[in-house]
Amino acid sequence: MKNLQDDKQRDLLKNKSDGINKFLTTNQGLKINDDNNSLKAGERGPTLLEDFILREKITHFDHERIPERIVHARGSGAHGFFEVTNPIPELTKAGFLQTMGLKTPVFTRFSVVTGSRGSTDLARDVRGFAVKFYTQEGIHDFVGNNMPVFFIQDANKFPDLVHAVKPEPHNEIPQAASAHDTFWDFVSLMPESMHNVLWLMSDRAIPRSYRMMEGFGIHTFRLINEANESVFVKFHWKPKLGTHAVVWDEAQKISGKNSDFHRQDLWDAIEMGNFPEWELGIQIIPAADEHKYEFDLLDPTKLVPEELVPVTIIGRMVLNKNPDNFFAETEQIAFHPGHMVPGIDFSNDPLLQGRLFSYTDTQLSRLGSPNFHEIPINRSIAPVHNNQREGHMRQEINKGRVSYHPNSLGSGCPFQTKISEGGFSSFNERIDAHKIRGRSKSFNDHFGQSKLFFNSQTPAEKSHIVKALRFELGKVETTTIRVRMLGLLSQVDMQLAEQVAKGLGATVPPILEKPINHGVSPENEMGDQESQTVKQLVSSSDALTMIKNPINSSTIATRRVGIICAEGVSETSVLNMKEALIKHDAKGFIIAPHLGNLQTKENGAIAIDFSFLTTSSVLFDAIYIPHTTNVTSLIENEDVQEFLNDAYKHCKVIAADGEAKKVIQAVSLSSKIKEDDKGIIISDNAASSEFIEQFIEAMGKHRFWDREENLYNKK
Ligand code: HDE
Predict the structure, then answer these.
(1) I need a surface site. Which of 236, 250, 434, 478 has the fewest CB within 10 A?
(2) What positions carry a catalytic annotation?
(3) CB-based contact 438:529 (threshold 8 Å)
(4) Does residue 677 fall inside a structural domain?
(5) How many domains in the chain?
(6) pLDDT at residue 380 tops 70
(7) Could you tell me which of 657, 696, 686, 690 has the C-alpha nearest to residue 572?
(8) Which of 112, 335, 346, 367 to mutate to test the pocket of ligand 1 (most atoms within 8 A of CB)?
């Protein structure tokens, strides 16, 4: 049967202004006349093997999936640019960091580490922050995370860590969660993971948005200038919107209501022209200071406090274009910390050194061929000439008979490049050492910076860490693992351990005289590699908190306000609020019992964005109930009560004006509201400018943590 719809679409396409007639074809370019029916022996007969069109289509479909990433399988990415705002030629010869205002195209992929490709965005997890720079000197990748430290010190332990945190192998449960026995079994036996474990239990692990996360290179890298002088550096991405998180109960609910929450947030922000932006900063450590600190610069479980070495901003990154095709770009992009340009180099961090092997190796199974660099998203904009040839799916048609170096038949091409003309060379660090399977003593302190991190947190943040640990260890079934963790926590902070123990109905074991350290080989265990706490030069650092972080500002740009309405709503209230939000680059959404339109008090109509069925309180940053003549319908609506109770519990701003204040007074949370709660804004006058200003100012505070019980200081 002929499909009329197809005829219409074909005519439409024929008339498209780009003038291209897009006929449906096979992969060989054959025009297809019927894409709805397979070739059969008679209308009611069996399908014929001859149907090469059907077989081509189904075969391609059968092979549409590629293996997901071993880690960081779930991610979202976008195109953009990096611009130099503070050139550093005195530190590096890297071309893309030389000139004020120079822009380099980038593609950035954010990811969740543990879950599979289809898992939730809001898992408690580390986030990946990987940036591919398409520089004139070749590809440069920054493959970092949203936390500045890692769980392990040596690449050899990475497969163990990942096996422990991934779903347990016998039943593949739980998905995208560290709250299970094998993870805590492993980390409780690896004191070196303590620092990163605390970051994981903090709100950094449940960001409000990819756009509100810091990024860190973690490892120490080197910069090298024209004179071949080198400094050590740590890389930092600082988000323009500040660092913000959701609360754990909210994260779990978001996972059910919209598991694409972060993906959608990034996509929508870019579509709406609210381009996410970060500053790139470096901490510069002169070569002479390599051994100055109480920690080792090569130890990836340590950070360099910003109080010791401030961050110098050198550029900014703006993400301004969504991918055209998720698979072709976000899925097929292949990052590698070893994609380097001249002027940047590695340090001897043993974790980084191991990564330098892993990333090309993994692309061979994931993308299936050593030619993955030819996939469009991975291609260098600098010309590529070498003698590598052939292999699966080779795209390049190399000409001529010469594929070796040196040669005379090809006039010596391609040539090697002198260092002075841009050829890559490694920093010629002097190494004079014995071959050893072991670790430096300078890696032995596992608790000093764990304490620094914990001590730096605000009371609300400490309380969240207690709750997270109670949750995670509460999901652990093996009691001895819980107790072992309490022992480790007590070496960070006794009150922290006691509060967690209280939630678990357990007691903190006595501190071992010699802390266990299973991160070393048995011969060394109680010898010169034993774990020890070293006195820290810095005891507290605001840069390590989210709430007191100096980069935070009171902007409400891109925040979402749920405006709860019923028939008879005041159009003036709604429009005034929406307009004010737009002025601050935020957005209000109308939520009502049904979709379609609402009749307003002024007899106009307002279009509804969501019904209570299609959205949820956890998908908004703040709630506003505008004055309405029909307040009883809202008071009696259980969905409204759930909306407000959740918003209150998650410490969000709730506002109501005119008659709508009765809604807040009526719901169950009203008895809990303290008089001095500045996050509850009520006005008798509908939509006064003072009320709206107060609402926007309160939103700028993000959350009102005073509403929560402070678990840390509680006796
Ligand atoms: Fe990765 N990591 N990693 N990693 N990593 C991968 O490479 C690995 C580590 C990071 O959006 C894999 O292409 C080893 C630290 C990000 O595509 C794999 C070790 C940091 C991404 C791999 C580490 C990272 C990956 C999986 C320990 C922060 C996602 C798929 C020696 C500085 C990149 C892939 C993207 C991905 C190996 C530790 C960041 C298997 C062996 C530390 C952001 O090659």
Answers:
(1) 434
(2) 72, 145
(3) yes
(4) yes
(5) 3
(6) yes
(7) 686
(8) 335
Q: Which numbered atom of ligand 1 lies nearest the CA of 354?
A: 31
Can you tell me the mean pLDDT for 179-202?
98
Is there a domain that residue 507 lies in?
yes
The token duo for 414 is 């391609």
* Same structural domain, 338 and 198: yes
Q: What is the mean pLDDT of residues 205-212?
A: 98
* 365 and 491 share one domain: no
pLDDT at 659 over 70: yes
Nearest Cα residue to 318 out of 130, 659, 564, 80? 80
**Which residues surround ligand 1 with Cβ inside 6 Å?**
69-72, 75, 109, 111, 128, 130, 143-145, 150, 155, 158, 218, 300, 334-335, 351, 354-355, 358-359, 362
Same domain, 268 and 169: yes
Domain boundary pick from 355, 378, 401: 378
pLDDT for 105-131, tens place per residue?
999 999 999 999 999 999 999 999 999
Write down the pLDDT at residue 517: 54
The CATH number of whichever domain residue 508 belongs to comes to: 1.20.1370.20
Last residue of a domain, one of 378, 400, 415: 378
In this structure, are 80 and 119 located in the same domain? yes
What is the whole-number distance in angstroms between the Cα of residue 351 and the centre of ligand 1? 11
Dist. CA 358 → ligand 1 center (Å): 8
CB 140 within 8 A of CB 243: no
Tell me: pLDDT of 258 over 80: yes
Inter-CA distances, 6 with 10, 25, 680, Å: 6, 13, 56
Residue 35 lies in a domain: no
Phi/psi for 283 (5° steps) reads -100, 125
Residues linked to residue 285 through DSSP beta bridges, in sequence order = 232
pLDDT number for residue 513: 54
Q: What residues have CB less than 8 Å from 420, skipping those under 6 apart? A: none
Q: Which atom of ligand 1 is nearest to the CA of 359?
A: 44
Is the domain of 569 the same as that of 536?
Answer: no
Residue nearest to atom 32 of ligand 1 (CA): 144
Ligand 1: centre distance to CA 344 (Å): 19
Same domain, 367 and 479: no
From ligand 1's centre to the CA of 71, what distance in Å?
7
**Structural domain containing residue 97:** 74-378
Q: What's the CA-to-centroid distance between 154 and ligand 1, angstroms?
A: 14
Q: What's this model's pTM, rounded to 2 decimal places?
A: 0.94
Q: Would you mind telling me the total number of residues written for the chain in this entry?
A: 715
Is the pLDDT at 16 greater than 50? The verdict is no
pLDDT at 29 over 60: yes
Does residue 446 form part of some domain? Answer: no
**Chain segment 91-103, per-residue pLDDT in tens:** 999 999 999 999 9
